[in-house]
From TrEMBL:
Pfam families per record: Citrate_synt
Keywords linked to the UniProt accession: Transferase, Tricarboxylic acid cycle
Residues forming the catalytic site: H273, D324
Protein name (Swiss-Prot/TrEMBL): Citrate synthase
Pathway: Carbohydrate metabolism; tricarboxylic acid cycle; isocitrate from oxaloacetate: step 1/2
Cellular-component GO terms for this entry: cytosol
Organism from which the protein derives: Fodinibius roseus
GO biological process terms held by the UniProt record: carbohydrate metabolic process; tricarboxylic acid cycle
Length: 387
C-alpha cells in the first residue's frame, strides 16, 4: 500500500532494519530477472546463454532500452548512431591529457562522463527518443575515454575512434593501436554482453535513486560509476587479478594463500553474491573462456590457480565465484592492464544503467527510504565555552 501523504510513518512499528536493503523490493523492472537459487539470468526475456551465443553487445543495448530485439534496419541504425557519437569533445580530451598518469582509471572515467553533460543542453524534453539519444551518446563515448586515457598515461598518441565496426572492435583498436582479430573482438563483445545488466545492484540502485530526483542522465551515470568502483562491487575484478599476481610474486601456494585469508577473516575477491546462492551463470561462461584463452596465451598457471581457489572456497566456505572472478583472467589473457577491468565493466553496464534510468523516469517516484534514529533526543544546549 502506498505510504500516506498526510501521515508520517510510525517508525516504532518498523524495528527491523534490512541492513544493506537485503531482500527489499523497491522497484519493478522489465530489464532483468535473476534466479539466485538456480543460477539463472535473463535480460528482458532472453537467458544469458541465449544472448551469449547469439547476440552482439549493440543488440543487447537495443534490448535493454526498448525491451525487445531490433529488426535488421533498427540494428543498422543503432550501430550507425553509436559509431557517429564516439568522438570526444576537445574539453574532455584536454582533461584526459592534463590528468595525472597515476590517477585511477575509474576516477578519470567518472569525471570525464560528468564533463560530457556540459555539451548537452538541459532541456525539458522527456521523450523516450531523447533519453535513448543520450544513452547512445554516453555508451558510445565511454570506450573512447578509457582508451584515450590509457594511451595518454603511457605516453602514446590518442587513436581517434572509427566511424565503423562494433563497440568491441573499436575499443580494442583505440586501446592497442591495431585492429583486433576476430577472436579478440568476439571475446570482448561477449564480455560486454555478460556485464550489461544485473537487476538492482548497488550501482543501478544509485543510478535510479539519482534519476528519481529528476536529475539528468549524466548525473545518474556519474553516480553509478562511483558506486561500481568499490571492491565489493565492480572493483572486485581488478582485485582478483591483484590477488593472482600477488600469489605469483610471492611464489605462494594458492590454496594455502586463500586459507590464510579466510583464517584472517578476509574476503576473497570475486566470490560471493547477494543474490546467487550457486554458481553465477556468467562466471560459468567466463570460466570456459578463461580456460581456452589462458591455454592459447600461455597463462595456464593462472587458470589452474583460479580453479584451485574455486575449489578451496567451495570446500571451506561453500561460496561460489561471481562474474568478477574469471573475467579477470580473461582480460589478462587479452593483454589488458588490470586497473582497466572495472572501466570495461562500466563501459558495458552503462547499457543497463541507462535502460533503468529510462524505466525510472517513465514511472517515477522519489526514492526516499527511512533510517531508524538511534541517537539522543531533546538535549539541552550547552554554550561553546562550557563544553
Ligand atoms: C559485480 C559484483 O558486484 S559481484 C560481487 C563482487 N564483490 C566481490 O567479489 C567481493 C567479495 N564478496 C563479498 O564481499 C560479498 O560476497 C558480497 C559483498 C558480494 C555480498 O555480500 P553480502 O550479501 O552482504 O554477504 P556477506 O558479506 O554478509 O557474507 C555472508 C557470509 O559469507 C562470507 N563471505 C561472503 N563473501 C565472501 C568472500 N568473498 N570471501 C570470504 N567470505 C565471504 C561472509 O564473511 C559472511 O560470513 P559470516 O556469516 O560468517 O560472517
Ligand atoms: O547484482 C549485484 O549485486 C552485483 C552486480 O552488479 C552483478 O553481479 O553483476
Amino acid at each position: 500500500m502506498a505510504e500516506s501523504l498526510t501521515k508520517d510513518l510510525d517508525l516504532s512499528k518498523y524495528p527491523h532494519i534490512n541492513k544493506g536493503l537485503a531482500g527489499i523490493v523497491a522497484f519493478s523492472s522489465t530489464k532483468s530477472f535473476i534466479d539466485g537459487q538456480q543460477g539463472k539470468l535473463i535480460y528482458a526475456g532472453y537467458t544469458i546463454d541465449t544472448l551469449a551465443e547469439n547476440a552482439t553487445f549493440e543488440e543487447v543495448c537495443f534490448l535493454l532500452w526498448n525491451d525487445r530485439l531490433p529488426t535488421k534496419p533498427e540494428l543498422d541504425e543503432l550501430n550507425a548512431r553509436l559509431q557517429n557519437k564516439r568522438k570526444l569533445p576537445d574539453t574532455v580530451l584536454d582533461y584526459l591529457k592534463n590528468t595525472s598518469s597515476n590517477a585511477e582509471p575509474m576516477s578519470v572515467l567518472r569525471t570525464a562522463v560528468s564533463m560530457l553533460s556540459d555539451f548537452h543542453k538541459v532541456e525539458a524534453d522527456t521523450s523516450k527518443e531523447y533519453r535513448i539519444n543520450k544513452a547512445i551518446s554516453i555508451t558510445s563515448k565511454m570506450p573512447t575515454i578509457i582508451a584515450a586515457f590509457d594511451r595518454i598515461r603511457n605516453g602514446k598518441e590518442v587513436i581517434s575512434p572509427l566511424s565503423e565496426q562494433s563497440t568491441a572492435f573499436n575499443f580494442l583498436y583505440m586501446l592497442n593501436g591495431e585492429e583486433p582479430g576476430e577472436q579478440a573482438e568476439k571475446t570482448m563483445d561477449l564480455c560486454l554482453i555478460l556485464h550489461a545488466e544485473h537487476g538492482m545492484n548497488a550501482s543501478t540502485f544509485t543510478n535510479r535513486t539519482i534519476c528519481s530526483t529528476e536529475s539528468d542522465m549524466y548525473s545518474s551515470i556519474t553516480g553509478a560509476i562511483g558506486a561500481l568502483k568499490g571492491p565489493l562491487h565492480g572493483g572486485a575484478n581488478q582485485a582478483v587479478m591483484k590477488m593472482l599476481l600477488d600469489i605469483e610474486e610471492k611464489d605462494a601456494d594458492p590454496v594455502g594463500y586463500i586459507k590464510e585469508r579466510l583464517a584472517d577473516k578476509e574476503k576473497v575477491m570475486g566470490f560471493g553474491h547477494r543474490v546467487y546462492k550457486t554458481m553465477d551463470p556468467r562466471a560459468r561462461i567466463l570460466r570456459g573462456m578463461s580456460k581456452q584463452l589462458s591455454k592459447e596465451t600461455g597463462h595456464e598457471t593462472l587458470f589452474e590457480w583460479s580453479e584451485a581457489i574455486l575449489k578451496t572456497m567451495k570446500d571451506e566456505k561453500g561460496i561460489d565465484p561471481n562474474v568478477d572472478f574469471f573475467s579477470a583472467t580473461v582480460y589478462y589473457s587479452m593483454g589488458i592492464k588490470p586497473d582497466l577491468y572495472t572501466c570495461i565493466f562500466a563501459m558495458s553496464r552503462v547499457s543497463g544503467w541507462t535502460g533503468h534510468y529510462i524505466e525510472q523516469a517513465e514511472n517515477n517516484r522519489l526514492v526516499r527510504p527511512r533510517a531508524l534514529y538511534t541517537g539522543k533526543k531533546d538535549l539541552d544546549w550547552v554554550p561553546v565555552e562550557e563544553r
